[in-house]
Every structure is written in C-alpha cells, then in structure tokens.
Amino acid sequence: MTRLLVVEHLTLRFGGLVAVDDVSFAAEDRQITAIIGPNGAGKTTVFNCLTGFYKPTVGRLTLTHPEGHRFLLEQMEGHVIAKTARVARTFQNIRLFPGMSVLENLVVAQHNKLMRASGFTLAGLVGAPAYKKAERAAVDLASYWLDRAGIVGRADDSAGNLPYGAQRRLEIIRAMCTEPKLLCLDEPAAGLNPRETAELNELLMFIRDEHKIGVLLIEHDMSVVMKISDHIVVLDYGRKISDGSPAAVRADPAVIRAYLGEEEDEALPPEVSKDLGAAGVPAGS
Amino acid sequence: MQKAVAAEAGARLEGGWAEMLRDAASVAAVSIALAIPLVGFHLIDHLSTTQVEFRFGQLFYAVAVIFLGRLGLLLIGAGWARPIASFTSALSLAWLVNSAASAVPVAYPALGWFTFLLAATLAVRGWHTFYRDTAGAAAKARQAGLGAMVSRAAVHLTPFLVLVAVSVPFYAVMADDKRAVDLGILIFTYIMLGWGLNVVVGLAGLLDLGYVAFYAVGAYCYAIVSIELGLSFWESLPLAGALAATFGVLLGFPVLRLRGDYLAIVTLGFGEIIRIILLNWNELSNGPKGIGNIPRPGFFGIAFTASPPEGSIAFHEYFGLDYSPMHRQIFLYYIILVLAMVTNWFTLRIRKLPIGRAWEALREDETACRALGINPTNTKLTAFAIGAMFGGFAGAFFATRQGFISPESFNFLESAIILAIVVLGGMGSQIGVVIAAIVLIGGPEWFRDLELYRMLAFGALMVAIMIWRPQGLLAHRDPTIRLGVAGRGGTP
Questions:
Q1: Which of B357, B372, B484 sits opposite A82 (nearest CB)?
Q2: Which of B180, B308, B336, B462 pairs with B66 at a CA distance of 20 to 30 A?
Q3: ipTM score
Q4: pLDDT at A284 over 50
C-alpha cells in the first residue's frame, strides 16, 4: 500500500474565521477513507482545498500516483487537478448537467481524452477515423459504468429527469469516467433510502476493489461509514480530533463528546440510543 | 368532469357577483382617472387659437371597454370560459365581417378596433382557459411534444427547405419580383447572425447583448481591406472572420468570470464601445459619414455592371444576357445562402464534438465542468471566438451588399433583434432560428401595408410567444449521442 494522499498542516482562514485548522492526515491507495464530523466541522472545505476550489492559507497537499508521479495540489488550478493529478469529485448538492442526456454527461467527463483524439476539434470536424474510434471507446466506457450503476436503460434520458438516487449514482460514475486515481465523494448517501444506500455501498466497494483507486468519503450516514470505510478521520470545529480504524474511532471518547456532548449521565432519547445501537455503539458509553 | 367544473363554477359565482362587479368598477374608476387627460381632452388648432374639446363619447367608450374586459376576464376565471369565449368569438367575427363589407358604419374607427381587440383577447383567453381546464394534461403534453415533432420533421424536411431556398431567385425572375430576392438576402443575413449567436447564447449559455460589434468589425474590416489593399471579397472574407474572432477573444478575456446579468451588461457595453469608436475614429472609419464605394463582389472576377471599364467584360455581356440589376442581387443571395449553410453545417457538427459538448456542459454547470477537468477559460473563449467569426463573415457580406456602411447600421437594436431571433426560436435550436428570423424579419416586411400597426403587431407577437412558449418556439434538444442501437457511437 502506498500513501496516495498526504495532507500536512492544512489551514484555511476566511478573514478571522478559521474553517480548517492545522489538519494532517493521509489516505492510502485502494482504501476508503471517510471524513466525518458534525455539521460545520470543515469537511467540505477540506475537499474544496483538495480539488482546487479553495487555495489553502497554509499547508501541503501531496498526491502520489501509484506509478510514482507526485503532485502538489495546493499549487494547482481546479481543472488541472482533475485533468493531470486525476482527482475527481462529486458535490453535496448534486451537480449534473441536467439538460443533457445521461450518456452525454458521461462523455463530457472524458472531455480531455476526446479533445486530444479530435485533434482539438480540427480532425473531428472532418470526421477522422481516429476520432470516431475514440468516441466509440468513450461510449463503451460510459456504458460499462451505466451498467454498474444500473441505469443503462435511461442512458438517453435527460439527467435531470432521473430519480434522486439514480442522480447520485450518475454523479459518481461520471466522476469515475474521468478515470481518477483519487475519488472524493461529498455525502453520496444524503437523501437516499435504505435500499439505495445499500446499492451505493456496493458500488463504492466495487470501485475500491476492482478499480483499485483511493476513495475519500464525507458522510453523515453511519451505516455507510462504518460498513465500508477502512480508515476514518474525524473533524470538529476545523480540527482533527480522531484518526484511525472504524472500531478505534467508534470507541474514542473525543468523538463521542463531539457528537453527543459532555454530559454522560444524562439519559439519551430513545431514538438516539436505537440509532447508536444500529451503528454498533454501546449506549451510554 | 365538465359537469363538475360547471357546478363548482356555479358555486363560486353565488357569492362572487358583487365582488366581481366591485373589482371591475374599481378598475374602471382607475381607467377614468387615466383616460380623462389621455382620451378626454382633445386640442384643436383653430386658426391662431387653441381650443380644448372634451370627448365624452370616446371617454365613455374607453371606460366601458375596460369595465367589460375586466368583467369578462373575471368571469373566465370563475368558470364561464366557454360562454364568454363563444360570445366574444362571435363578436370578433361579426366585427371582421362588418369591417370587410363595411355594412354598418362605426362611429369611431379606432375605438372599433379596440373593441375588436378586446373581444378577440377575451375569446383567446376564454378558449385557452376552457381547453386547459378540460383537457389540461393532454394539451400540455402536445405542446411539449411540438418542439420534438418539428425538430424531427425538420431533419426530413431539410432537403425540401434547401430546395425552396435555392429556388427563390427563379421564382423572383419569373414573377419579376425584385423584392423577394432582397427580402431573402435580408432574412438569410439574420439567419446566419442568429446561427452565429446561437453558438454563444444557445450552446455556451453566455448571454451576449453586443453581438452586433462583431458584425461591425467584419463589415469595416472588409470595407477597409478591400478599398486600401484591393483584396477581393473571397480573399477578405477569412480576414474579416479572423479579425472578428480576435475581437471575440478580446471581449472574452475580461468577462470570463462574469455570468448572467453581469455578462450581459458588459457585452452590451462592448457593443456600444465598438460603435462609438467607429463613430469617432475618423482616420480609420471616416466617422459618421461612413465608408462608401465598397467594392461589390464579382462572379469569378467578372463584374456586375451596366458599363464595364475598358478592357474588361461585364457579367451580362459574358453570358449574352440583357443587363439587369437583379443578376447581382441573385448572386448575393446565393453567397449568403452558402455562408449561412456553412454556418449551420459547422454548428451542427461541432455540437457533436467534445468542444461543443463542453460548451453545453458549461451552460449547465460551470463548477461541475471544472471538477471534470474541463478548462473553462479556453472553452468560453472558443465559443466567443467562433460565434464572433460568423458575425464577422456576415458583416463582410453586409458591407459588400450595401456598398456603404456607417456606424448607424450597428446600433443596439440590431443586437436585440438578433438575440430575439435566437431566444424566440428556442435557445440552441437551429430550425427555430430560421422560423424566428422569417417571422421577425420577414413579418414586418410583408406587413408593411399595416404601416404603424406593424410594430404594434410585432410587440403583440413577442408578448404572445413569451406567454405561451416561454422556452421559445422550438425549445427541444436532441442528445448529441445515443446509446440506442440506431445511434450507436454517433456520427460527428
């Protein structure tokens, strides 16, 4: 196992507000690393720094491909990170191209590859065979992933007309169509019903095991986090408060304090203890 | 279901009469306040003195029309759509028949018109509401399907439409109708501009209110290059396109980070800047006097003139015809036809290439594009450049057709008309642009006989389209690539 992503002393300040405060962690290749924490803990901000949407105030973000290329993400533009460092991401509020068809969404994701094949449009204009071949390959890759996500029957429909769960899966496979080395998923299970959540788990584990890439996951749904993560990083108020295997994090008093507050002897509402039981946390610990 | 609607309407009417009458009366009261100064007083020049005449009759008439119209709308809303619509339809028809046959004289012709408009509006509203209530879902589906249907039909109709376009000059020669060719040239110029702007607005979603700037750059580039350097039309055309594309990139750079309204304002300013520069830079553009005597295109080097200069031969002599100014018009018609077709071919093709898909993706969501590794800067700049290039081509054509250009031809109204063509046609729809250009450019030309009323009709048409088809006439988008067996792999 190689260290795919190393985050060192990542800090981001918006004026006087410290959104992320000296966070360091590492994500291994071929593993699912989850970032959890209460609302406003700075999880999405970490993602935005990784994918170039924000420039960190302090810190170094090193991505090392399995073949050995190294990229310093904090110095790169967002679209260059996606193109050369091969970091793909999804968004908390789904960002598809709703007016375009599902297949087109997946073909647009292969833009840079197809752009080269079309000779930056010139060869494509005259209908060069090399471009046609590249386009067929792009469609094949897209239909492979459509098959995986179970939406192959809706390939020619507008992406905006898909049901919510399918849109979530489409966004993930669209990111996969960029053939990334690191996949960053921002709350992929938000708003999904239990059956759709189970399908999502299966898709994520398939991506990790068959495509052998690293996955970074922000998630609130503990049934996803605890089931599929290999490694969990917990943030609270922009600081890292815990880091380790799911079992270790679950037992960490700092994590429980962050999620449930200080008072330990106060009786928990029945719904909360039921949820905790489902996630495997012994109530009242 | 109809019975239920009627019963419900009856129940609503029980307590509603007084309310409706009160509403209509209050509207009428407001209209009296407005109409007394506007309609009531009439100044008469009587020799050297001015007299004021008070027009009671017309005031009463105007207020009555408003009162009845308001009441009619309220009744339609209360479920009386069908009787009101039937009655007003009959009334409008009767009026039309009466005015055609001029059987019964009408006291005030203008107010007669307004009564007719009132009746016709109520009829349209009434039938619309009636059909929406009774067969709402089906009607909506039909409307949504219209765009798809026309787009699909257009694919099969294309050869026919091209044939019609090609045969216009033959018709014109046979019918000796010079106006048809001129109108054809005008419409195709706007179709080409519409298709060019469609790349920027329809595909890339960048609202450009200053498109006419590129049209102007192309026109002045051709005028100056052909006069100063003596280049022919076909040699200057690429230059005009390239210069306009350069200006497109120049405009693109500062507006890269702007979207929506802000982008529209800056492009609007850019259009005005170009016009004002042309107006004031006398050395280059000859200022408001404009540039005249711009060389007209020749047919493979053969000029279209009645009396060719010494040692050369004119078109009609070469082909042994009688001289007619129509020859050149017909030639110009075919030039713009070819230029427009090239624009269309290019746009249809580039839509199916990665760059075209990236434009559309950028229109849908720029952030997502960046996350997928698409460079938004390059993508936007190419859209601006290619859209501007077609504007430049059209501008060069405009200059050679007119033989004279001045900054007056490139004012904001032109940009607005081109944008209206794209928006009314349905953003991104190629055939929609054609229909909108024919309606918006051809319509006012054909209805020149209506004189002042044609602008009124133009406005009414725009409002009608915005109410019933806010997405444009043919808002329908076919995917550029399909997984289905028929379109497997798609052809670029």
A1: B372
A2: B462
A3: 0.85
A4: no
